[in-house]
Each structure stands twice: as C-alpha cells, then as structure tokens.
Amino acid sequence: MSNDDHLPEMYFVVGAPRSGSSVLLDFLTVPKTVAWIPQKLGENPEKLMLAKRANKLNWPLLGEFYLERRSVWKSVPEPANGEKFWTHYLNGFTPKDTEPYIPGPGQVEPADAEKLREAIKEICHLQRRHRFVAEYSGFPRIQLLRSIFPKAKFIQVLRDPRSVAYQMVKRADGANLPLWKEREKWTSLMPEVLQERMKALPETPLNFCGILVRWFHELYNTEMALLPETDRLEVAYSDLLSRPDKILTKVMQFADLPLNKRFKYYVKFHDIQQSNQRTNRNLNSTEAEQLAQAVEKL
C-alpha cells in the first residue's frame, strides 16, 4: 500500500444496520470543510464529477436555504449511504449472500485500494475540502479500511440491539431479508455460543436478526479495541436523540470540526428526536422475551 501523506483526514461513521449512523452522518456533512458522497454519486460511483453537486450547499445565501431543505427536496444533494460506492471500488467490500465471509484486509486487492484512494482525493478536490466523512453499516470492516487509510478515524453508533433487529425485520418485510434466506451459511460463521443460541430459539426472522446484531456488536468490539483511543469514538443513539447538543459537540471535537453558527443552526432547525422509534411496540410478550434472549451479551 502507498503512504497516505496526501490523503484527506478520513472519518467513518459505522454501526450495525438501522443503528442511526445515517442520522449522525447528516450532521457531520454540514461543515463547509468536509467532503462527502452525494446520493447521485453514490448511485453512479464511476461519475466522480457528480461530487461537485455538494458544492451547491456552499453557495452564498442560497447554500443555507438549500441545506435546510435537503432532507425534503430531492433536487438538493444529501449524503449517500455509500454501499454501492464502496463495492464499486472494492470488490470484496460486501460479501455476496451466497458466499458469506467476514470482510477484512484479505479481501482488498492493492490495485483496488489505490483506485479508491485516488477517487477520494478527487472528490475532495472537486468539493475543495480537506476532510472526508462517509458512512456504512453491517460488518465492521474497520481493519479493512485501515489497511487502505491507516490514519482513518471511526465513530460507532450504538443502538439498543432489540430496536435494531426489529427495524431490520420491519424494513425487509420479514422473510424477505436477504441474510435470512442464507441464514444457515451465515450461522456457520458465528461463534459457537451464538450457533447454540440459534438452535435454542424458535427459527424466526426476528430471532435470527437479534442474534445477528449481537454478532455484529461482538465483531465491532473486537475491531474497535484494536484502534488507538484517539482514533475511535462510541456514540449511543439514545443519547444522540435525547441530548443532541452535548453529543454532537463531543463528536465534532473528536473530528476537530468547528461548532460554528451554521452547524448550530442546523442542529436547532432539525429536531432529530423525530427520528426515534419505539422499541418493540408491536411485539407480543413471547416475541419480546425471545428477542431479549437473542441479543443478550456474550
């Protein structure tokens, strides 16, 4: 791998699916010094010129107007999830359902890594910014990305695993969840204690997702612990909703980003408590009890 002396400062917002990482990403892309992947670029990763769409939010006067409305106006650029972007540049970034594996440095080809580094540098050049922030969910991939960006920092969003599992099933309409269709293959990669837990509980999409989220959390614990303390930060989703000013101040200090008037106004303008979802309100007592067992810490 080549050195990263000329790379921007890299920040990744990560977590299990449905943990709230997209909520945090939304706020981290407000400062004018931060580059990010607009949705159009996320959908067409090879067309790097689409990165310039983000500059629209930096226009004098109109930029503030667009920023306020980017979550409701489809014509205004907003940050992309980025899964398609990462998979485009790194062939091994996302495991195929039929070929399960835990993503790690071994899945990265040197040529792909260099192509990704050049793409990130081009995005920052087009947006005229010297920091870069992105988000992904699912498997940690922290060591994979550190092999490409050795100085990258990671912010993990932690949400009640029961809520995460419930939202995963709800969004995928139950049995249509891709991982559920290949559950035997994925279960075979889990620690033995989770395999035994899978056998002990009724075979339902909700119980499977609960165990899957517990597995994700254990993998994150392992990979985050390998990082220097200065390069990792954990944020509770519940705290982000209940104490947004305090938590976002902590995050911005970690990323060495300014808490200027633009950012403070955006936090005030967007009531992120509206993003909250009541945990398990549609579960009966048996389902809730089984889910609690599924997500129990090892």
Structural description of this entry:
The two termini are 36 Å apart. The chain has 298 residues and is of the alpha/beta class. It has a single domain, classed as 3-Layer(aba) Sandwich (Rossmann fold). The model has no long low-confidence stretch (mean pLDDT 87). Helix 7 packs across helix 11 and helix 11 packs parallel to helix 15. The longest helix has 21 residues. Strands 2-3-1-4-5 form a five-stranded parallel β-sheet.
Structure summary:
Helices cover 47% and strands 8% of the residues. It has 298 residues and is of the alpha/beta class.
What topology emerges from the helices and strands here?
Elements: E1 9-14, H1 21-28, E2 34-35, H2 39-43, H3 62-69, H4 83-89, H5 110-127, E3 131-135, H6 142-148, E4 153-158, H7 161-171, H8 178-181, H9 183-187, H10 192-200, H11 205-225, E5 232-236, H12 237-242, H13 244-254, H14 261-269, H15 285-294
Parallel strand pairs: 1-3, 1-4, 2-3, 4-5
Give me some keywords for this one.
298 residues; alpha/beta; Rossmann fold; five-stranded parallel sheet; 5 strands; globular
